[in-house]
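Here is the promised in-class demo. Please do not try to memorize the tokens; focus on the logic of going from shape to residues.
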């Protein structure tokens, strides 16, 4: 299949092998503008590896990753970030000793380094941006709180906010609700729906209750390939999906 310029992300014939083992095997994936895509599949299916390859952490053995029709495979991770690919890892990387405000402030593209932030002049533009993002992630009332004092869920939302400060067009999250309470999961579902109103979001998730809450289109991976793709109903009723994943 040839690349399609209408997609935010077009992954084609993507393969990575580790000592001959193909963790991603000739995979094609297309993500639309403002789409919230959920990727599910058994352990070892290659979900995390796929996100690692899109963000540039893992190099492809072969194949293509196009972001806005621009080939990404040869670009380093930081260049992909600059171009608008944001990735949230499972372990939070917030600065515990800085306030919520400061964490967001240092994530603004111009003042990204922590050292730089000490001397960083807080312009009105940055302040407005911090305020808007803090409201979006539900932390507007905790701007002066030290990040280390936040609840687990709040820390995760702060990290999402730090990524949003860079205004990514594609945001990828790996198991965003791990360790969260029921209430925090509900808030996270709403947050993900909200942020996908004006950007594309890819979420890897194992918790099917959560997937049902947020899913538009679901991609099921198995052995480095796509096993099925479609609505929640489609994939839930797919016998192959039940066999390799949902039936367990
Ligand atoms: N750097 C690497 N070197 C060798 N093998 C790797 C490497 N990274 C991943 N793998 C292997 O590739 C396969 C896919 O792993 P991956 O973590 O992407 O799966 P996953 O679908 O995210 O699983 P989980 O749901 O458990 O997180 C696994 O068999 C894993 O051991």
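The designed amino acids, position by position:
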């Amino acid at each position: 299949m040839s690349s399609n310029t209408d997609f935010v992300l077009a992954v084609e014939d993507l393969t990575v092998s580790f000592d001959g083992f193909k963790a991603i095997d000739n995979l094609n994936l297309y993500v639309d503008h403002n789409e919230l895509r959920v990727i599910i599949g058994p352990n070892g299916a290659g979900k995390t590896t796929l996100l690692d390859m899109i963000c540039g952490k893992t190099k492809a053995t072969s194949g293509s990753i196009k972001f806005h029709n621009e080939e990404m495979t040869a670009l380093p991770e930081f260049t992909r970030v600059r171009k608008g690919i944001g990735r949230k890892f499972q372990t939070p990387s917030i600065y515990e000793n800085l306030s919520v405000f400061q964490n967001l402030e240092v994530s603004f593209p111009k003042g990204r380094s922590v050292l730089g932030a000490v001397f960083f002049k807080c312009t009105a533009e940055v302040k407005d941006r911090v305020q808007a993002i803090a409201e979006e992630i539900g932390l507007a009332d905790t701007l002066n709180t030290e990040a280390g004092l936040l609840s687990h869920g709040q820390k995760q939302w702060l990290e999402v906010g730090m990524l949003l400060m860079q205004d990514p067009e594609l945001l990828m999250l790996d198991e965003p609700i791990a360790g969260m309470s029921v209430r925090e999961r509900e808030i996270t579902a709403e947050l993900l729906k909200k942020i996908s109103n004006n950007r594309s979001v890819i979420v890897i998730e194992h918790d099917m209750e959560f997937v049902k809450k947020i899913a538009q289109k679901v991609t099921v991976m198995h052995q480095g390939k796509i096993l099925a793709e479609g609505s929640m109903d489609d994939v839930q009723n797919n016998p192959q999906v039940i066999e390799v994943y949902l039936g367990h």
